[in-house]
Amino acid sequence: MRTRPGPWLAAPTALFLLAFFAMPLLIVSWYSLMPPRTFSMLGAPTLANYAAAFSDGYEKPLLWSMLGATLTTLICALMAWPTAKILHAHAGRAASIITALIALPIFISESVRLFGFSMFLLPRGGILAGSLNAWFDIQIGSILNTRLAALLGMIYVYFPFMLFPLLLGVSLIPEDRLEAARDLGAGRWALFREIELPLAAPGLMIGALLTFVLCLGANAEAAILGGRAVTVISAAIEQRFSYAQDWPMGAALTVIVILVTAAVVWPVLRRVDLNRIIQR
Amino acid sequence: MIRDRHVRYLKAVWIGTIILLLYIPIVSVVLVSLANTRYMRFPHRVWSLDAYREAVDSFTTWSIHLVSLQMALCVVIMAVVLGTLGAMAFARYDWHGRSVFQRLIVLPIFFPQPVLGLALLLSFSALGITPGWKTAVIAHAVWIVPIVTLVISIRLFGYDVAQEEAAFDLGASRWQVAREVTFPALWPGIFSGALFAFLLSWSNLPLSIFTSGADTPLPVWLFSRTATNYSPLVPAVAVIGTVISALLVILLLVLRRLFRRA
């Protein structure tokens, strides 16, 4: 009876991810070392692509993506904190309906929601500009096809990814500890800094991590809402792969994004105990 | 007291604003779909359902939905099988290497999806595999299997292993225990996992866009037609595709309720 089924149960999933997650990353890493504009994997390894990545202006899309991801994460965190606190404090039927309403859009395709966003912002005949013009006789310009629009699109799409981990985090704060601190004369800021923030930190970190990483690769927001105002790193990589037919260069850019991701994800995941968060 | 009421009011306004902002784009799609013009001028001079009629008559509408449907069904099967096994290893059994497995399995969730799609595209091309809906299924599964594993694991953490031992002590066979004890306990997790898998695959854009090759699932079609070659079909198809997934979810939830009562 006392066999150890753990490794056997883990094996199929682990093998699947090895084959289709770890392997592709290895293949891409290897490709990034091939001579520029070749398609074979048998060339002599070189670092030429990495050198070119930093001399040919590819750091720009990468920096835009990182800036967009950082801003989105910060703004989402600032918006999600009060939201999570309110939903947690008023837990009940109404709060669960609101939570469900916030979660629902996750399951509606990004292409549908971003298309709607662009139609809302469309100049002149758009939902916003058209309504204001017809009913209030107000004419407004539009932020469509700007970097700001792309940023707003990312905040809009990734807000739930920040909110839900944070909601878990906030629920880890015991109410009696807050009360005890209040009785001892702790102010609002002290409560937040000394008790709420450290206790909710696992949820906050997971949420921030998820938002940052998803935004780092995001390209649909920039494509639909940003117009040609900004080139993000995924768009730059795709451009190398398809139009330029320069696989090794695209692979090198991919590896750089993977390294940035790993540098952010690994330290956090090592510290957070998943068992504890999930068990709640 | 008055200050309290103000705070309550502010909180309600804040939550209301968030909900409003989240739904503005979705409502916008519906509004746009109610006119049949190529150049939108809202408010519409003529409100009509013509775009929907055209969408239903169009072969493309059917084919993109079928591609999305067959992809989502394959992803559900893969995610449920691999996710259930993975969750047992994740949450049910204690074994050497479990904490490493737990950390590694969540990595695909914390990974930029378009970059994963591009890495898979390059790998498939390098290995001489032509991208199509099957490669897109693989790409979806890499991201969705870990999510479903977590969803089922959350359920499993609340599962009391002693029930199984009690059943064995009462003389139940291995098969009986699996069917009468383990499976009913796992079922709610599997159900939600399958639902998640379906919806996430059905709506996924960033993985499909690079890995689906010549086959076009719904979100990819919408994305490419939004960027170029816009037609009034786009908002109508967007609404149809979303409504189909919503109806399916409602149907499944109703069925589950009926079965539970029976």
Automatic annotation (TrEMBL), chain A:
One of its GO terms (cellular component) is plasma membrane. It is a multi-pass membrane protein. The chain crosses the membrane at residues 12-33, 62-84, 91-108, 114-136, 148-173, 199-218, 225-243, 249-269. PROSITE patterns: ABC_TM1. Keywords: Cell membrane, Membrane, Transmembrane, Transmembrane helix, Transport. It is found in: Cell membrane. This is Spermidine/putrescine transport system permease protein. It comes from Chromatocurvus halotolerans.
UniProtKB/TrEMBL annotation, chain B:
Residues 65-255 form the ABC transmembrane type-1 domain. One of its GO terms (cellular component) is plasma membrane. Its main location: membrane. The keyword DNA-binding does not apply. Keywords: Cell membrane, Membrane, Transmembrane, Transmembrane helix, Transport. It comes from the Bacteria. It is a multi-pass membrane protein. It holds the Pfam family BPD_transp_1. The keyword Transport applies. GO terms for biological process: transmembrane transport. The chain crosses the membrane at residues 12-35, 69-93, 105-129, 141-162, 183-202, 233-255. Belongs to the binding-protein-dependent transport system permease family. CysTW subfamily. This is Spermidine/putrescine transport system permease protein. It comes from Chromatocurvus halotolerans.
